[in-house]
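Q: I'm writing a short explainer about ATAD2 protein for a general audience and would like to include a description of its predicted shape. Could you first generate the structure from this sequence?
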Amino acid sequence: LFNNDCEEVFKIQWPTCAERRSFFEDLVMKQAAEPPPSKNNSARQPLEVLPLAPPPKPRQLTEEEIKQLEEQEEDTLRELRIYLRDVTHRLVIDRRFRAFTKPVDPEEVPDYNTVIKQPMDLSTVLSKIDMHQYPTARDFLKDIDLICSNALEYNPVKDPGDRLLRHRACALRDTAYSIVREEMDKDFEQRCQEIKESRKQRGSDCASSYFSVMPKEDSVPGSTKTDPKCNEKLQMPAGPVDASTPWSKGKLCFTQNIVGKVLKVLKL
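A: Of course. Here's the predicted structure. Afterward I'll give you a sentence or two in plain language.
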């Protein structure tokens, strides 16, 4: 293929180590080891630290959506009130807790209101349930704690009667907590807590939306004007009906009204 006479063949010697190093050093050690030059010079500059963007504002609900939401919330809170009435009823009919069913008579215990700044009893608890003042079971148990703490504060250990009353006050608290913790689903209580927070953010009061407080006769003499809507709700008949608390698959199932039976026991 190649003619030596025409000088088409060129003979070379094998390269030495120094020659090979000199040939590849610039290519391998310098050019190949360095990153390629960036076409965008801004990539080498440090990025500006920007503040966190505020969370997006919640979408404003329409009047129809708000009405539907309130109806769903009221359905849940109605189940809660039915359950709390049932729990209170079971506490009222228990003879051990008879001393805590009605307010303390100031004529029998003149200094009670001086010692106890926030009286509480089971009949007042029932009234607060009717007035939608317990959006969660936790709020209900706070008043049960108040009944117990008032009894312990006013009745120091002096005689066997005081010891018995203190024992029954502690038993009342433990019984109420045991009933609620054993029967109420945690998801249901969490839902009630979410409703409470949601209404607080919306500025909606759980009680004022459904009831208007009637003026006291002794504080406003001769006052007979009341809200007609309130009268319709407050004049509902309350006949004695058996109460039960069926429990099925972790859900509350309450069907009976027990207000009349509780009021009948309170009159005894």
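A: For your explainer, you could say: Residues 212-268 have pLDDT under 50 and may be disordered.
Q: Perfect, that's easy to follow.
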